[in-house]
Amino acid sequence: RVPYAVSGGLSFFSRKEVKDILSYLAVTVNPDDDVNLLRIINIPRRGIGKAVLMNLLETARRHSCSLFSALILSQAANGDEFPHGRAKAEIGAFLAAIETTRQKLTVKRGMSAAVKELVDRIDYWGYLLAQNKKEQAVRFKYMNVESLVNSIADYENDPENASPSLRDYLHRISLLNIEENKDDEDNEKVNLMTVHAAKGLEFDTVFIAAAEEGLFPHSRVIEEAEEAIEEERRLFYVAMTRAKRKLFITAAASRRRMGEALVSSPSCFLEEIPEELCITHTEEVTAENDAAAYFTNLKERFK
User: Range of 101's domain?
Assistant: First the structure.
């Protein structure tokens, strides 16, 4: 394992958008998880105001049950102390989303598909758009959600996981967070950061990963006006000029997006780099047992 440090930002699983979806999954696995339920009960906004929420918490206290059970009770009960109108309908939709996801998780190797459907069902993209004025920030946040879905797909498709489950995946994530938070005296680490966080910094060697159409530039930018492409081009320039000695730009031939394997093509920005400045490698690993030798050779080349 290569030691690394996330610089200029939060670790992946600490990002709000990732924690939002993980909280949905935690409630799906354990509906009595009040902490995670309180986090997402209004994500996206459901018109559940403070007064409604306090009444629901009081219902849970009075019936000695979890908040999730109080939500279920609120659907069958009437009275001023229970939600009504839009709030009641939204709570019903929320409960339906959790139950539908729970049922789909029973399908073998169907975890990533179920999570992707949940993200679409709650319209998390629309929620991000409503919360952020800059669409570029929205794209970045949604890419993190896509990466989470891909992570789940990789986990459930790993042949070493004989019986993958969402509960086990969440447990592994919690252990990973503990490991990342441990103090490490070894300062020889790879710095992972966004292009924005790298502004003003320089390094002897820089790697730009995922220089592919649809990622850098992002697919939504490609569909927009030329001004949006120019902003992505400036970011790519910033990333390139962080390197003092060596710059490596990588692109994958195929990549998982929301759990689906899709063919990738190199970023259009690569065509704008003068050929005399580049050394291009287009080797392809065709079998899993070739990977170790390939990366050993790659490591020697990067020295």
Answer: 11-179
